[in-house]
Amino acid sequence: MPEPVEVENEAAEWVHRGIDPTPEPNSEYAEHDRYFQVRRVRRQPVETFLRGLVRAYSLVRQNADQMGVTNLDATQWRNLFAGLHGILGYARVPLAGGVPPMPTRPVDEYLPHHRWLVGHQLFFAVVQGAIVGLNCFVHAAERGDEPDARAAVGVASDFMRSSAAAIRFTADFGPVDYDKLVRPAMAPPAVRAGFSGLQTRDHAFLVGLFTELRTLLARPGPGRAGADFEEFVDATIEAYDAHQFICARFGGDVLPSLRMAANSQGRTTQSGADALRQIMRARLFTLTGVNGRGATA
């Protein structure tokens, strides 16, 4: 899976399988990592992944206490922590306490750019958590171990729901602040024209894994997880719906994305939200073989 990453804010780390963890310094993957202050590492993959996951959650909790939370309802706030609880439960590691109470109003500071940063860092961590769960599912399915396959794909579902909540959390500030503070920082000279979430190597690896899952599930046998795998598909749809939410919140329902505007040299008439819906349908087809299953119109 993708190689553990250190969050340079302080320290979170990720794991990697199959994608070059040290791409060319000027590659789009490397640029994306630099912008969001992450560093890929190889050492002690299990320990660094878990340490990075906990650190990313800690930074998000700190920011939530500072700014409050308005974009998430009570269920979405619980889902934000579902991946952490799910993987510790799968590893039979006791977790003291439950989900912390959701801060509902600003307490200290209004920090939209910091929320954009730490929310994305958590998003990368929980996407890697989904990959961990799916890798465990693949190994269990190949052994024909139905109970473990169901438990592992449940972890992946927990992390996908966490990713949906994380991206909603990331966008929990005013659209005016996005236009004035965040979007200009994702443009030249800070980054190349067309800077995009499509430059995220963790999501790229996840989509590649979807193809492997589809091939695996096409073969009959035990360990296919049945309804539990369908729950993962539903959680994936929820995650893509959250991306459509953030896109629309910041004008993507009428404006092109940064990448679309750069690639078309300003001539595209397609909105970012429309393009995102097309991507979502393609990703779901890769996973299920059904075009647009459950996709939001």
What does this 3D model show about the protein?
The protein has 297 residues and is mostly helical. Helices cover 60% and strands 2% of the residues. It has helices at 28-35, 45-67, 74-80, 82-90, 112-143, 146-170, 175-185, 201-217, 227-249, 258-263, 272-288; strands at residues 5-7, 38-40. Strands 1-2 form a two-stranded antiparallel ribbon. Helix 5 runs parallel beside helix 8 and helix 6 (146-170) runs parallel beside helix 9 (227-249). It is globular, with a radius of gyration of 19 Å. It starts with a strand and ends in a 9-residue tail after the last helix. 42% of the residues are buried. Mean pLDDT is 80; it is low at 7-21, 254-262 and 293-297.
Q: Quick summary of this structure?
A:
With 297 residues, the protein is an all-alpha fold. It has helices at 28-35, 45-67, 74-80, 82-90, 112-143, 146-170, 175-185, 201-217, 227-249, 258-263, 272-288, and strands at residues 5-7, 38-40. It is globular and about 55 Å long.
Number of strands: 2
Mean pLDDT score: 80
Share in β-strands: under 5%
Helicity level = 55-70%
What distinguishing features does this structure have?
single chain; 297 residues; mainly alpha; two-stranded antiparallel ribbon; 2 strands; 60% helix; 2% strand; disordered C terminus
List the helices and strands and how they pair.
Layout: E1 5-7, H1 28-35, E2 38-40, H2 45-67, H3 74-80, H4 82-90, H5 112-143, H6 146-170, H7 175-185, H8 201-217, H9 227-249, H10 258-263, H11 272-288
Antiparallel strand pairs: 1-2
